[in-house]
Amino acid sequence: MVDFIDHLVMLMLTVAFGAAFVRVVIGPSLPDRVIALDMAGTIVVALILAHCIESDSYYYLPAAITIALVSFVGTVALALYIRRGGPS
Amino acid sequence: MIRDILICIFLSIGGLLSLVAAVGVIRLPDLFTRMHAATKTGTVGVASISIAMMLHFNNITVTSRGILVIAFFLLTAPVAAHMIGRAAYHSGVSLWILTRIDEWKTHGSKTRDK
To answer: Residues 41-80, chain A: which have Cβ within 8 Å of B?
Structure first.
C-alpha cells in the first residue's frame, strides 16, 4: 500500500514541478519566475524524500538539505538583485 | 499496520498540497496571490512528506535529519517570501485589478526604506 501511494505522490509532485516550470516560461515579470523556481526547488526536495521512502535508503537526505539551502540562498540573492534595479 | 496507514495519510497530504500549489501557481491572477499559493502550500507539503519519511524509517538518524529539513523550511520560507514580495512591490509589479486595499500606498510611503 505504501508503495502504491508513494508512486502516486511522486506522480503528483512531477505534475506540480511541470506547473512551476510552465509559470517560469509564461511568467510576465521576473519575481514570478523567481517564486516559481523557489517552488520547483521545494518540490525537488519533496521528490528526494519520496524516493528515500521508495528505495528504503536514506543516503540522499544530505542532498535534500543541501538543495533546500541552495534554493533559499538563490532566492534571497535574486530578491536583492530585483531590489537594486533588476535587469533594467 | 497503523504505521503504514499513517505513512499513507501523510504522503497523501503532501501530494495533494503540492497539486493545490500547482493549480494556484497556474491559475491565480496576481504575483502576490501566486506567492501565497507557492510558498505556504509547498512548505507544508514538504513537512508532511518528511514526517512520512521519519515514520517509515523509525530511526534516530533519519528523524533528526527530517526535523532539520522541516525546521529549515519553516525558518527560510517566510524570509524568502517577504524579501521577494517587498522587492516586487518596489519594482512596480502591478496588483490585481480587483485589489481593494493597498496599505503601503496609503500609509507606508512616509517611512519608506531604501
So the answer is: 42-43, 45-46, 49-50, 52-53, 58, 61-62, 64-65, 68-69, 72, 75-76, 78-80
- Residue B112 domain flag: no
| Angstrom distance (rounded) from CA B31 to CA B63 | 36
B33-82 confidence digits (pLDDT tens): 888 888 877 788 999 999 999 999 988 999 999 999 999 999 998 899 89
Looking at the 3D structure of chain B, how many domains does it have? 1
Which three three-digit cell numbers place residue B103?
496599505
Q: Which domain holds residue B18?
A: 2-107
pLDDT tens-digit profile of B9-38?
Answer: 999 999 999 999 999 999 988 888 888 888
Is the pTM here over 0.80, yes or no?
yes
Among residues B81, B80, B31, B95, the alpha carbon closest in space to that of A29 is found at B31
Q: In a mutagenesis test of the A interface, which of B53, B96, B97, B114 is the best target, namely the one with the most A β-carbons within 10 Å?
A: B53
Q: From CA A29, how far away is CA B90, in angstroms rounded? A: 13
